[in-house]
Amino acid sequence: MAFNIDRAGTTFTGKVEFSYPIGDGKQEHGSFTAIFERGQQTEIENMREEFRSYIAIIRAIELGSLEPSAADGLERKSLLPIAEKILVGWGEDMLSGDNDEPMSFTAESKKKVIEFPGVANALVSAWNTLTDPEVGKPLTSEKLRGNGIGK
User: Fold this and answer.
1) Which range marks the domain in which residue 96 is found?
2) pLDDT band at 129, cuts 50/70/90?
3) What is the pLDDT of residue 6?
4) How far apart are CA 105 and CA 107, in angstroms?
5) I need a surface site. Which of 91, 101, 102, 125 has the fewest CB within 10 A?
6) Within-domain flag for 120
Protein backbone atom coordinates (compact mmCIF):
# COMPACT_ATOMS: atom_id res chain seq x y z
CA MET A 1 0.00 0.00 0.00
CA ALA A 2 1.29 3.47 -0.87
CA PHE A 3 1.99 6.02 1.84
CA ASN A 4 1.22 9.74 1.61
CA ILE A 5 2.95 11.49 4.49
CA ASP A 6 0.86 14.63 3.99
CA ARG A 7 -2.35 12.67 4.61
CA ALA A 8 -1.09 10.91 7.73
CA GLY A 9 -2.16 13.86 9.86
CA THR A 10 -0.53 15.53 12.81
CA THR A 11 -2.21 13.41 15.48
CA PHE A 12 -3.17 9.81 16.15
CA THR A 13 -5.22 8.07 18.81
CA GLY A 14 -4.46 5.23 21.17
CA LYS A 15 -5.90 3.52 24.20
CA VAL A 16 -4.23 4.35 27.51
CA GLU A 17 -4.66 1.78 30.28
CA PHE A 18 -3.54 2.15 33.88
CA SER A 19 -4.24 0.98 37.42
CA TYR A 20 -4.71 3.08 40.52
CA PRO A 21 -5.36 2.33 44.19
CA ILE A 22 -8.74 3.05 45.75
CA GLY A 23 -9.72 3.56 49.38
CA ASP A 24 -9.60 -0.07 50.51
CA GLY A 25 -6.18 -0.70 48.93
CA LYS A 26 -7.55 -2.56 45.93
CA GLN A 27 -6.56 -1.63 42.42
CA GLU A 28 -9.01 -0.12 39.96
CA HIS A 29 -8.32 -0.16 36.26
CA GLY A 30 -8.94 2.81 34.04
CA SER A 31 -8.59 3.50 30.37
CA PHE A 32 -9.28 6.29 27.95
CA THR A 33 -8.61 7.22 24.34
CA ALA A 34 -5.73 9.66 24.05
CA ILE A 35 -5.06 11.90 21.11
CA PHE A 36 -1.30 12.03 20.63
CA GLU A 37 0.83 14.50 18.73
CA ARG A 38 2.63 12.83 15.85
CA GLY A 39 5.41 15.38 15.34
CA GLN A 40 8.64 16.12 17.15
CA GLN A 41 9.54 12.47 17.60
CA THR A 42 13.26 13.30 17.86
CA GLU A 43 12.59 15.75 20.69
CA ILE A 44 10.39 13.26 22.52
CA GLU A 45 12.92 10.46 22.09
CA ASN A 46 15.64 12.73 23.48
CA MET A 47 13.46 13.51 26.51
CA ARG A 48 12.77 9.80 26.95
CA GLU A 49 16.48 8.95 26.76
CA GLU A 50 17.31 11.60 29.38
CA PHE A 51 14.68 10.02 31.64
CA ARG A 52 16.09 6.52 31.07
CA SER A 53 19.62 7.71 31.85
CA TYR A 54 18.40 9.35 35.06
CA ILE A 55 16.60 6.15 36.12
CA ALA A 56 19.69 4.05 35.31
CA ILE A 57 21.84 6.18 37.63
CA ILE A 58 19.27 6.06 40.44
CA ARG A 59 18.92 2.27 40.12
CA ALA A 60 22.69 1.80 40.07
CA ILE A 61 22.95 3.80 43.31
CA GLU A 62 20.14 1.75 44.87
CA LEU A 63 21.85 -1.51 43.85
CA GLY A 64 25.19 -0.31 45.18
CA SER A 65 27.07 -0.33 41.87
CA LEU A 66 27.44 3.47 42.04
CA GLU A 67 28.28 5.63 45.02
CA PRO A 68 25.54 7.98 46.27
CA SER A 69 27.75 10.88 45.21
CA ALA A 70 26.90 9.94 41.60
CA ALA A 71 23.61 11.76 42.18
CA ASP A 72 25.35 15.01 43.15
CA GLY A 73 24.13 17.70 40.78
CA LEU A 74 21.84 15.23 39.00
CA GLU A 75 18.71 16.98 37.78
CA ARG A 76 15.54 15.09 38.67
CA LYS A 77 13.74 13.76 35.62
CA SER A 78 10.08 12.92 35.26
CA LEU A 79 7.72 11.55 32.63
CA LEU A 80 5.42 14.53 33.15
CA PRO A 81 7.09 16.78 30.51
CA ILE A 82 6.92 13.97 27.96
CA ALA A 83 3.25 13.31 28.73
CA GLU A 84 2.59 17.06 28.51
CA LYS A 85 4.23 17.18 25.08
CA ILE A 86 2.51 14.17 23.50
CA LEU A 87 -1.06 14.50 24.83
CA VAL A 88 -3.11 16.92 22.73
CA GLY A 89 -6.62 15.66 23.45
CA TRP A 90 -8.78 12.72 24.47
CA GLY A 91 -11.97 10.95 23.54
CA GLU A 92 -15.36 11.07 25.17
CA ASP A 93 -14.33 8.18 27.42
CA MET A 94 -12.43 10.65 29.66
CA LEU A 95 -15.11 11.36 32.24
CA SER A 96 -15.55 13.64 35.24
CA GLY A 97 -18.14 14.67 37.78
CA ASP A 98 -20.79 12.72 39.62
CA ASN A 99 -22.73 12.05 36.41
CA ASP A 100 -19.76 10.72 34.41
CA GLU A 101 -19.90 13.50 31.84
CA PRO A 102 -17.19 13.63 29.15
CA MET A 103 -14.41 15.93 30.33
CA SER A 104 -13.49 18.88 28.14
CA PHE A 105 -9.86 19.11 27.11
CA THR A 106 -8.43 22.30 28.59
CA ALA A 107 -5.02 23.23 29.96
CA GLU A 108 -6.36 22.73 33.49
CA SER A 109 -8.01 19.36 32.81
CA LYS A 110 -4.92 18.17 30.93
CA LYS A 111 -2.75 18.98 33.94
CA LYS A 112 -5.21 17.24 36.29
CA VAL A 113 -5.18 14.07 34.15
CA ILE A 114 -1.42 13.98 33.56
CA GLU A 115 -0.67 14.46 37.25
CA PHE A 116 -3.03 11.68 38.35
CA PRO A 117 -0.70 8.94 39.68
CA GLY A 118 0.24 6.48 36.99
CA VAL A 119 -1.27 8.33 34.04
CA ALA A 120 1.92 10.03 32.79
CA ASN A 121 3.69 6.66 32.76
CA ALA A 122 0.73 5.02 30.98
CA LEU A 123 0.60 7.82 28.39
CA VAL A 124 4.29 7.54 27.57
CA SER A 125 4.05 3.74 27.50
CA ALA A 126 1.09 3.84 25.08
CA TRP A 127 2.86 6.39 22.87
CA ASN A 128 6.03 4.26 22.88
CA THR A 129 4.07 1.15 21.90
CA LEU A 130 2.22 2.94 19.11
CA THR A 131 5.28 4.67 17.65
CA ASP A 132 7.70 1.76 18.16
CA PRO A 133 5.90 -1.60 17.88
CA GLU A 134 9.03 -3.41 19.10
CA VAL A 135 8.70 -1.80 22.56
CA GLY A 136 7.47 -4.40 25.01
CA LYS A 137 7.59 -7.20 22.48
CA PRO A 138 9.27 -10.37 23.74
CA LEU A 139 12.65 -10.99 22.17
CA THR A 140 11.70 -14.57 21.38
CA SER A 141 8.80 -16.88 21.98
CA GLU A 142 11.06 -19.90 22.47
CA LYS A 143 12.81 -20.90 25.70
CA LEU A 144 16.43 -19.92 25.90
CA ARG A 145 18.80 -22.85 25.58
CA GLY A 146 22.06 -21.32 26.76
CA ASN A 147 24.71 -19.54 24.76
CA GLY A 148 25.74 -22.47 22.56
CA ILE A 149 29.30 -22.59 23.86
CA GLY A 150 30.65 -26.14 24.03
CA LYS A 151 27.84 -27.69 22.01
Assistant:
1) 5-40+78-131
2) confident
3) 85
4) 7
5) 101
6) yes
